[in-house]
Amino acid sequence: MEQKGDMSLPELAKLESVDVRKAWPHEALQFTPWLSRNLERLSSVLGVELELEDTELSVGAYRADIVARIAFDDDLGQINNLVVIENQLAGADLQHLGQILAYLSGLKARIAVWIAVDFGEDHLSAIRWLNEHTADPFAFFAVKVDVVRIGDSQLAPVFNVLERPNEWNRQVEKAAGLSEIGEFRRDFWAHLAARHPGAPDLRPGYAFSNVWHKDKRNDLRITQFLARDRVGVYIIGNQNELKEHFWPRLEPYLDALKGALNDESFFHWEKHCCITELKINSRDRDNWDEMVDWLEDRRRTYERVLQSSSGSAE
Q1: pTM, to two decimals
Q2: SS (H, E, C) 153-174
Q3: What are the residues whose beta carbons fall under 8 Å from the beta carbon of 229, sequence distance 6 or more?
């Protein structure tokens, strides 16, 4: 009998844990600024879209590491909830829990996210007790942060939610209106993904109004958005980055963008640049093929120009 060899078996690398201090040697100087600019990493595990409000915000005798908002768009009447994020690049301690409660009171915030390298059972029990004995819309999270890599690869952060409110997923669905608006968005982005299988940054079940595409070369984000009467594309910087800060990175490409988009008129908001829109009834599903084709065509155009040399169209 012929023996089966192992030539077809793949060689798999081992995922290794790394000391978080190798990624961020200093909590206030490295970790907090990094997280404030990468809140989408935390958003993905919490299941909500976070927008940066402030960092190192004075609250009495202390400073809140990060203050954010859970924000939905105009279709939901600008429903915003303040979120306090407290970081520890060490094991959790009850002093920080006390600070979190002070921040909630001082800022009139409703949601607390406690991030630490490790949590003891007493810390998790405290978060569990708070979730069980406070009424909606208060919510408390314990999030463990790790850093991993495979072989000599880049370091990668991993966020793991250890404690959350029992009814959190249902609260999020209710707040986002998944019975109507959320389901509409989810179906629309699923339609785009099905019609354009190569479209990036669309995970299954995605139900937010905006989809962000990172332009690593210029540290910008190309953003597709969906509204009731239009779809559009615009460019933004990092989380909460003011236009005057990212404008120098974008300005060299403006003429090329205008030319590539056949002189479509641009307009600018305070934080968003190079916005172009397709006015259309997005509620009519017969329009969806046209809408998703337009969105993907414009995304590719923006991407091609931003990847070109000195803004010259290729």
Answers
A1: 0.58
A2: CCCEEEEEEEECCCCHHHHHHH
A3: 279, 280, 281, 282
